Amino acid sequence: MTVGDLLDAKRAEHLTKSFLGWQAPARDPSTGAPVEDPTKFPDGMKALADQIHDLGVKFGIYSDAGTYTCGRRFGSLGFEEIDAKTYASWGVDYLSTYLIICFWLQTSCLTLGA
């Protein structure tokens, strides 16, 4: 059973807000492109998007407009163009993005522009 198989189109709206932590710890060092977590998504984001689209459901992911997410993964600041091109190549339909400023010495986050 694949991740796409687990998505029931009738319940997709409920699942759209789930945060799965899709990002690897770092970007591709040679291109700067975003990279998916190979443990969570061994077939890649394109394969996941294709499976979801086969169910007739749109596919969206989350990124942060700052340097890092609160999950301590890379944000899009300075990489907006390559991120957009990569997401499009994966078949992403929607991008949810926030500007979150995390304080590394504390456990809380401040969200701006909610």
The CATH first-level class comes to: Alpha Beta
CATH topology: TIM Barrel
CATH architecture tag: Alpha-Beta Barrel
The total of helices stands at 4
Assembly state here?
A: single chain
Q: What is the end-to-end distance?
A: 36 Å
Q: Which value, in Å, is the CA radius of gyration?
A: 15 Å
Which residue ranges are poorly predicted, with pLDDT under 50 across at least 5 consecutive positions?
103-114
Element pattern in H and E: HHHEHEE
SS content category: alpha+beta
Residues in β-strands, percent: 15-25%
- Residue-averaged pLDDT: 78
Biggest β-sheet description: 3 strands, mixed
Q: Within the largest sheet, what's the order of strands?
A: 1-2-3
Quick overview:
This is Alpha-galactosidase. This protein is an alpha+beta fold and 114 residues long.
Describe it.
This protein has four helices and three strands. The protein is of the alpha+beta class. The protein has one domain (3-111): TIM Barrel (Alpha-Beta Barrel), CATH 3.20.20.70. A three-stranded mixed sheet has the order 1-2-3, with no helix packed on it. The termini are far apart.
Entry keywords:
3 strands, 114 residues, alpha-galactosidase activity, 4 helices, Aldolase_TIM, GH, disordered C terminus, Glyco_hydro_27, alpha+beta, TIM Barrel, 3-stranded mixed sheet, glycosidase
How would the blueprint of this fold be written?
Layout lengths: L2 H4 L5 H4 L28 H11 L5 E5 L15 H11 L3 E9 L6 E4 L2
Parallel strand pairs: 1-2
Antiparallel strand pairs: 2-3
